[in-house]
Amino acid sequence: MIKFENVTATYTENVGIFNLSFHIPKGELVFLMGPTGAGKSTVLKTIYKDIPISDGTLFINGEDVGNIRRRHVPRFRRKIGMVFQDYRLIPDRTVFENIALPLQIEGVSKKEIKDKVHDICEKVGLKKSINNYPNQLSGGENQRVSIARALVKKPLVILADEPTGNLDPNVSDEILDLLEIATDSGAAVLMSTHNFPLIQPRKKRFIELNEGRLVVQ
Amino acid sequence: MITKLLFLLSESFRGLFRAKLPAAISSITIGIALVIFSLAYFSYVNLLGYSYKFKSKYRIEVFFHNELNTEEARDLFNTILILDGIEQGEFIDKEKASKLFMSYFHEDINEIIGENPLPMGGRYDIDVDYRNSNQMRRIVREIRLLEGVDVASFQQGIISRVDSIVENILGISMAIGIAIFIIAVILVSNTIRLIIHAKQETIETMHLLGATNSFIRFPFVVEGIIQGILGAGFSLLILYLLRSLQSYLFEPLIKLPFVEPSNLIAYNFIFGLLLALIGSFRGIAKYLPK
Question: Which residue, among B140, B180, B196, B209, has the nearest Cα to B272 in the 3D structure?
């Protein structure tokens, strides 16, 4: 699903990721660990093609990311579900509208959107808040909306960039539960975090980075 | 595809309602620019109408050599009549010439000098498209080259003066029009840029979710089109009120050859849309480069 082969991607000469190799198969949740500035976000940005690869090969669902043309990037990103620390919800849209957005971008029919959004809201426990706006929700609920938005299109890859960074431990656990549930449908989930105590009890594989280089796998 | 289109259209209207104030400012800006355009156009058309009306009173006058007999003079008159730019003419024989002398000076030329020395000739009206000093000068030059023509002339001084006034007013109107167009485009694009700036994070999120630039751009362009239509409507309303005011105050005194309302409506909508579209694309270009 996600395959890094000696990937180097840099912002400037000494900032970025260097010679990184790892593989995340279908249906696995892997944590990306490391201190601030270790290159966790760079790994994720490289996957969704926000930063170009300067060396090595990166495969997502068998597709060589380096060969994707700029104009095909939007189509490529539609296959990936993304969850962010700051949720990145659209403030003047309801929970329903925020979750429906990726489907609307794909041009899915109105009825299908309605069914899928209601279905995912049920799964992540947002049924009651479906008509609320983000500012009417708690941090945990907002992150649930963000996860629901990532899951609604049933992506094969889910990237979560410090999704628990702004949440208290109990809510963070619930968010991890939701990400784990996503792997049941076969998605490969890569979640970046620097909160080791949170992930330790989960007994999942983790990749540790430091200064853009792989430390532990 | 239809679902996507309907979604984008609904987004456009929602965007407009979410940013009511900037959208209203943008529409009013377009409206004011269109009012000024329309007034400039209206003044130009009226001025042109008056100048043509004024110039229609002027003709080319031709006097033939006295040696020509009536038949030769008629032939020459007809030769001139078919020249390019001549609309119609009136043949002046000796008898008519003496009558004209009488009407101008209230005296009979035959009684003064015992015979009629006045030459035969013609008076020619000019086609509408040729009623300017350059064309009339050209026609006079051609007439003077014909054998048997003694004198050919027109009121060159006055016509040249009228032409230069019309040209100056047209030049000034065009300069004002271009300046207003540029100002309106800048104002509209800055308003749209402000709207987009406020939505920068939303645009970034949409990019991350896989939205193409066209998908993001479309609602802003439609918003621009709606603003253009609203601006044109606003302009037409102001023009209607100005027209009513003009009728009420000046109609008994001045009769203006008005511009066709259908033309004015069409021009307002065309220019309104043009202004809005250029403004939208300029506004979007900064945040959504192609």
Answer: B180
Q: How far is B2 from chain A (nearest CA, A)?
A: 8
Please report the DSSP string for chain A in residue order.
-EEEEEEEEEEETTEEEEEEEEEE-TT-EEEEE--TTSSHHHHHHHHTTSS--SEEEEEETTEEGGG--GGGHHHHHTTEEEEETT----TTS-HHHHHHHHHHHHT--HHHHHHHHHHHHHHHT-GGGTT--GGGS-HHHHHHHHHHHHHTT--SEEEEESTTTTS-HHHHHHHHHHHHHHHHTT-EEEEEES-HHHHGGG---EEEEETTEEEE-
Using a CB-CB cut-off of 8 Å, the residues of chain B touching A105 are 206, 209-211, 215
Residues of B in contact with A102 (CB under 8 A): 209-210
Q: B211–A110: do the CB atoms touch at under 8 Å?
A: no
Q: Indicate which of B5, B209, B215, B290 best probes the interface with A, i.e. most A CBs within 10 Å of its own CB.
A: B209
Q: What is the pLDDT, as a whole number, of residue B139? A: 93
Decide if A96 touches B, using CB distance below 8 A: no
**Cβ of residue A104 closer than 8 Å to a chain B Cβ:** yes
**Which pLDDT score, from 0 to 100, does residue B257 have?**
56
Asked if B18 is an interface residue toward chain A (Cβ–Cβ < 8 A), one would say yes
For residue B252, pLDDT beyond 70: no
- Tell whether the model's pLDDT for residue A190 goes beyond 90: yes
Check CB contact of A109 with chain B, cutoff 8 Å: yes
Mind listing the domains of chain B with CATH numbers? Answer: 2-53+162-287 (no CATH), 59-154 (3.30.70.3040)
* A to B CB pairs, distance under 8 Å: 45
Residue A91, φ and ψ in degrees, nearest 5 = -65, -30
CB contact B202 to A (< 8 Å): yes
Is the Cβ of A88 closer than 8 Å to some Cβ of chain B? yes
What is the nearest CA distance from B223 to chain A, expressed in angstroms?
17
Where are the alpha helices (H) located in chain B, listed in sequence order? 2-18, 20-55, 70-81, 94-105, 109-113, 133-144, 156-198, 200-208, 213-250, 261-287
Q: Which two tokens stand for residue B142?
A: 């051609």
Query: What is the tens place of the pLDDT at every residue in A102-152?
Result: 999 998 988 999 999 999 999 888 989 999 999 999 998 999 999 999 999
Checking phi first, is residue A193 left (phi over 0); if not, alpha (psi -120 to 50) or beta?
A: beta
b/e B72-87 (16+ beta carbons within 10 angstroms → b):
ebbebbeebeeeebbe
In this prediction, residue B238 carries a pLDDT of 93
Contact between A109 and B201 using a beta-carbon 8 Å cutoff? no
